[in-house]
Amino acid sequence: MSHSLFISDLHLSPDHPQSTELFLRFATGIAHEAEALYILGDLFEYWAGDDDLNDPFHRRITDALRGLDARGTHIYIMHGNRDFLMDAELGAACHATLLNDPTLLDLYGTPTLLTHGDALCTDDTEYQRFREQVRKDDWQARFLAQPLAQRKAQIEQMRMQSKNEKRLKAMDIMDVNVAAVDNLLREHRYPRVIHGHTHRPAKHLHHPDGHTCERWVLGDWDSGKAAILRGDAHGLEWMNI
After folding, report:
1. How large a percentage of the chain has pLDDT more than 70?
2. Which residues contact 172 (CB under 8 A, 6 or more apart)?
3. How far apart are the C-alpha atoms of 37 and 102, rounded to whole Å?
């Protein structure tokens, strides 16, 4: 049966060899049986710009995705909160289509909305201000105009600051806001939703305006386990490798 796979929050980097090897095994194994693979953000631990594509580690990942496309699996990549600077060169290197956030598609007859999920965490007002700032064209143009090494150093500094700030935040603040989810469902006429970002894999039911809508949350790969969601005409289910 035709099916698609959904993953997010892989956070791939040379510092995470276990998740990297797991992803490469996935890309050369069961992923090629799917007609499409959707990566809903945070493929990489961070992305400093498409001029970093020649990094050997990045080439290893893009080569794996390009090989998967060559075997007939369409690749779709959405920006996450860690790799929002991915652009057309990265997409071309992977033979992938870059998706807007959110993206609504007809998934085997069921309207399904794909999003990374960070925009739904509206209780974390500090993060939302940061998110709005770094997604502005002028901010990105100024940042990308700097030398690559300088950009990477700044990103590392921001990551350390973010880790320190998270220790002071309540866990619920960093989860999605139910009202924000319901507003998104209303805006897109009550579809099913798939997202990542929160690292809390689960299936939730929402009931905005009397409609029942599924929300599937993808898990991260940081623990060395692959968090994969499979979708076909019968619905969605978790997969393991």
Report:
1. 100
2. 123
3. 16
What token pair was written down for 119?
Answer: 């925009």
As a whole number of angstroms, the distance between CA 113 and CA 120 comes to: 13
pLDDT at position 167 is 77
Looking at residue 184, the DSSP 8-state letter turns out to be: H
Q: What is the pLDDT of residues 26-38, one digit of tens each?
A: 999 999 999 999 9
Predicted local distance difference test score (pLDDT) of residue 163: 80
In angstroms, the Cα distances linking 87 to 52, 64, 80, 105, 226 are 11, 18, 12, 21, 25
With helix as H, strand as E and coil as C, how does 107-167 read? ECCEEEEEECCHHHCCCCHHHHHHHHHHCCHHHHHHHHCCCHHHHHHHHHHHHHHHHHHHC
Query: How far is Cα 169 from Cα 173, in angstroms, rounded to an integer?
Result: 7
Q: Specify the CATH number for the domain of residue 168.
A: 3.60.21.10
Quick check: helix, strand or coil at residue 75? strand
Looking at residue 44, the DSSP 8-state letter turns out to be B
Cα–Cα dist 79/215, whole Å: 19
Q: CB–CB of 77/84 below 8 Å?
A: no
Read off the amino acid at residue 24: L
Beta strands in 14-102 (DSSP E): 36-40, 74-78, 96-99
What is the number of structural domains in the chain?
1
Q: What is the pTM of this model?
A: 0.96
Range of the domain at 204: 4-239
User: What are residue 96's DSSP bridge partners?
Assistant: 75
Strand partners, 206: 213
pLDDT band at residue 207, thresholds of 50, 70 and 90?
A: very high
